[in-house]
Amino acid sequence: MSRPEEVHCMLMRGGTSKGAYFLARDLPADPGERDALLRRIMGSPDPRQIDGLGGAHPLTSKVGVVSVSESPDADVDYLFLQVAVDKAEVSDRQNCGNILAGVGPFAVERGLVAGSDGETSVRIRMLNSGDLATSTFPTPGGRVDYTGDAAISGVPGSAAPVVIEFPRRARSLLPTGHPLEIVAGTPVTCVDNGMPTVLIAARDLEVTGYESPEELEADQALSARLREIRLEAGPLMGLGDVAGTTVPKLTLLAPPVGGGTVMSRTFIPVRAHTSIGVLGAASVAAGLRIPGCVAEPIARLPSHGDRLRIEHPTGFLDIEARVELGAGSAVARHTAVVRTARKIFDGTVFPRSADPSPRPDSQGGNG
């Protein structure tokens, strides 16, 4: 009997997501072979992902692939891959700012970047979009320290802060060129500050925006409306046919209830997010700064400072966003967020030998 494949892997929590991190050299160079291997590692397709590392939810079925960058503007390259849970699909059509939080520590752990005594900054090129980010985190004695008192909503306890700063962007935040569009009969704002996102007033879809993710997912009429909006918004945002992709994200907005700037409910693309993604929050925050956006009568912007608090189902995310407005244009001049990350295990993962054949008559146990 042949020996199973062995792949060096680190499982990490990055922000409010969890994913498997790999060095690019440890995976097949061919994208098709790589994706097939990752499906077997994560246990997809299977709603429970019972035979792999995945956690049966899009937020826990993620992969980060990291390598030394050839760009003079970056230390490492980071490719994010979303492994579908119950479908044989792996997508590179989007970034993930939560998994991004673990990339800097992972690069130091693997020796791609030398850790400094005190703290280390790692310049990261996100291959999905070509965007750049700088991640700064504590490294006493040159080793990553995951302990600390930084707490983020959606994650129990506390950990060391990972400060992620995004550089000034040259391209417009408004891919359609307008702060307000009517898409599928609904007023929306299409914005991209690292994550293509469609902002929608919850009340325009006949929901409050305070429902739980489970309640929103169970609303079939809402799901149909969201799908219609997403399919029509995709081409308007220059994304083409988005029927088989996870972008653009859709975020419903309502007035804040906890002293923040706005309440949010985000879909990825059909599952309701239990919190909000980092890059999704960056796009929401930038959109709130644009006059004429759908959130203008909803959001409560602070009178001074760059920090905005985006409320979500399990708490809030604080993000700094500064926007420069011009004649018919809006560009992001400053975006920064504090996340945390933690190494869960480091070792060898053994993928299953082959994709399973479906057995319609099989039933899973509860034990």
UniProtKB/TrEMBL annotation:
Coiled coil stretches, renumbered: none
GO molecular function, one term: isomerase activity
Domain of life: Bacteria
Pfam families xrefs: PrpF
Keyword Ligase attributed: no
Top-level class of the enzyme under EC nomenclature: isomerase
Compositionally biased residues, Low complexity: 351-367
SUPFAM superfamilies: Diaminopimelate epimerase-like (SSF54506)
UniProt EC number: 5.3.2.8
Gene3D superfamilies: Diaminopimelate Epimerase, Chain A, domain 1
Ranges for region Disordered: 348-367
Listed InterPro entries: OMA_tautomer-like (IPR047687), PrpF-like (IPR007400)
Keyword Isomerase: yes
Keywords: Isomerase
PANTHER family the record matches: ACONITATE ISOMERASE-RELATED, ISOMERASE YBHH-RELATED
NCBIfam families: OMA_tautomer
Family that this chain belongs to: Belongs to the PrpF family.
Record protein name field: 4-oxalomesaconate tautomerase
Organism lineage string: Bacteria, Bacillati, Actinomycetota, Actinomycetes, Kitasatosporales
